[in-house]
Amino acid sequence: DRQTLVAVLQFLRRSNLRESEEILRREARLLGDDLGAGALSPGSAGLLGGSGSEADSGEVLLGRGTGAAAATAIGGSVAAVATSSPGVAAVAAVPAGKGGARRDCGVGAFSRRDPWEEGSVLSDKLFAGPFAVGGAVVVEDQPDVSAVLSAYNQQGDPTLYEEYYSGLKHFIECSLDCHRAELSQLFYPLFVHMYLELVYNQHESEAKSFFERFHGDQECYYQDDLRVLSSLTKKEHMKGNETMLDFRTSKFVLRISRDSYQLLKRHLQEKQNNQIWNIVQEHLYIDIFDGMPRSKQQIDAMVGSLAGEAKREANKAKVFFGLLKEPEFDVPLDDEDEEGENEEGKPKKKKPKKDNVGSKSKKQDPNAPPQNRIPLPELKDSDKLDKVMNMKEAARRVRLGPECLPSICFYTFLNAYQGLTAVDITDDSSMIVGGFADSTVRVWSVTPKKLRSVKTAADLSLIDKESDDVLERIMDEKTASELKILYGHSGPVYGTSFSPDRNYLLSCSEDGTVRLWSLQTFTCLVGYKGHNYPVWDTQFSPYGYYFVSGGHDRVARLWATDHYQPLRIFAGHLADVTCTRFHPNSNYIATGSADRTIRLWDVLNGNCVRIFTGHKGPIHSLAFSPNGRFLATGATDGRVLLWDIGHGLMVGELKGHTDTIYALRFSRDGEILASGSMDNTVRLWDAVKAFEDLETDDFTTATGHINLPENSQDLLLGTYMTKSTPVVHLHFTRRNLLLAAGAYSSQ
């Protein structure tokens, strides 16, 4: 049968018995092309790839896929098949090498740090690696640089590359409109891989002319990547280049409808354009969906990240986006709240809000994680008091909406010659902190109450510990001042975060450390060392105790204040992690990166449960809606994108800013989204309207056919200019007054 035949042919090829192989092939009427792309080319380790769910020649090894993943030994080779649905099979056969050593096979999309994923549609590149005892296939996590680059060895005629590319370009530009938009996604990844292939094989002049001829055709949002690429002109340059390695080891993902894919495949096979077909097979992951092709604007909304779009599979996992149940102690407060409302004279408007607060403590949100899914710190008495205060404030909160916009109070840092690099404001809006480029952290009191340190140990021993005002007595009046400066970092401070109980402050710096400061003594308690490079952002969990940091080393780390090692390391981004945010229920963490994607991580097991693509520049701000269902993200492209976390879909795009968006914040009830930018403006958007009537039917969720409204201007409620102050932080007080902060720049 054919399976055995394939295995024997491979054996003959390995043993260099070419003649026997030819004879057997003629006998069996098997031509090389019949066995799938590159099936028996030298050194290809017998890669048999079926594409899509057609009964392709590549599926021959294990017949039609049965919907289960299986590994079968055939004639001294290990064949692994991963299937996602009946009839979709991606097969890779791995022959045993000399001395019984075997190469492992990765089936599915291979990214630098991804685990072995089942359910890939296209067969993958094989990486050399150890073979586990007991017959299991082991996949290496970090492919070796030389192994990665050697993939560029099988090359065509260098002088024909321009012809191949322009031929494909002509074909795509002449295809029907409905297919053209989808197939145009191929231009960029093919351009990069063909260029790198030329450079790797030392055809420098051909590479240069190829680059010059076609780089102008690429989408504008790839300009920065192309700038890096243009500097790679020699084989040696490719060895240590991170961008290059990312491109090589993470497959570029394209989402294409089956019709468009068939069209492309037919064209390449008719033209015998093997060079391009090999690149498509080796380096691209084509996520094929059934149904209508997507329009140009639907595609444009989603593409632009370093590694293409997210695979649909990446956003299928269940996410518990609901809020945790509030503790019960706050019920007796209801009477006081009633009085507060009647004084205002608007009991009707306030009623629904009060019910929410009360019902929060009684009903469990069906989408919420189990209460004990991750261990959260116990509430201290002081926390309970603070919650009570919070409830009282909430009762007096202004209901915002298009008719009732918040007042905005702007804190301008004047003469900040040290260079303001980070700001945070406490939840009760009593303190503001600035991180500066001169490596200092400065804390101000925003209320008339000055900042005081605790007395010295000798003085504390004289205090009567039983007295009612013991907390007042331990404070040293002599230290009272409006400003405290904290010294300790040895580089610019890029992120700051107050703990929810206002006892601690976190700061992270270019020096690679995160520091925890006491706001009782205004001294540094701990320096957390884990990142080897600058740390760009840090944030406390809404429940305290845990915090997250992200940096230039491309990973985010989860810490607990009493552990000096990180509890979790979230690895997967292909560039710096530029901003981090906890979900309101503290079970998830969102990270934004310079690879132009946002990822959502599960704190419990460290898995990446969502990948959002669509921004055209590095992400610099993240904000979860108060109900936990939505995420807003801002980037250097000046767009705010809105995401539905449960369905894993983009649901909105807010255009208006003309520069990087550094601050995003939802009002306390989630009616308004405020965004602050380097263009010196604060803009307010109607969040209720943005999230109503969402199309999240099964088809949209399955194919990602998102329909964004043409114009986001009807969601814009107001634009507020500063004189010359970029906005770096926004904060809604408990009563929904908006505080903004930035440093005046006198250009």
From TrEMBL:
This is Transcription initiation factor TFIID subunit 5. It comes from the Eukaryota. Belongs to the WD repeat TAF5 family. GO terms for molecular function: RNA polymerase II general transcription initiation factor activity. WD repeats lie at residues 413-454, 486-521, 528-559, 570-611, 612-645, 654-686. It is found in: Nucleus. Gene3D superfamilies: TFIID subunit TAF5, NTD2 domain, YVTN repeat-like/Quinoprotein amine dehydrogenase. Pfam families: TFIID_NTD2, WD40. The gene is Taf5. Residues 331-383 are annotated as: Disordered. It comes from Formicarius rufipectus.
